[in-house]
Amino acid sequence: MDQKAARTAATKAFKAGGMPLRKGHHRLGDPKSDDIVWYIDLRAQGAGPSAPLRFEIGCWVAALGHPEPEGGPVDCPLLLDRPVAATTPAEMGEEVDELVGLVGDLDSVGALREALADGALGRPLVDQSLRTFLDG
Length: 136
Known about the structure:
Blueprint: H1 3-16, E1 21-22, E2 25-28, E3 36-44, E4 53-61, E5 78-83, H2 89-105, H3 109-118, E6 125-126, H4 128-135
Antiparallel strand pairs: 1-2, 2-3, 3-4, 4-5, 5-6
C-alpha cells in the first residue's frame, strides 16, 4: 500500500474513532478538561514514497503543568513509536481502531501508570518530569 492510500485510510479511521485532526495531529481528549490527552501522527521512517510508516504516539498529562504540545506527539512527556503493519486500507483501519482503543482506555494517570508497569505500551520514552510524577 502506498503512503497516500495509507494516510487516507488512517485519517478516516482516526476520525471515525474520535481522533480528528487538530493542528495537524490526531488528538484524543481535551487539554482544557481531561487529565490525559493522546496525540498520534503517521510518520515515514525514511525518504521516498515507499518508505515504511510508523505511528508516533504521545501522551500529555495535565497535572505536569506543561503547555499543550504544539508539535504533537514529539512534544509530549511520553513518546512511543509503533511500526505500521497494515498492507491494505482495510487493515490500516483495523490497526488504527486497535490503537485508538488502546490509548482510549488509558484516560487517567492511574491507568497510564498501570499500563507502563504492565508493559502494555512497550518501552516508551518517558521524560523525567512524568517519571517523577508517576513514581510520587
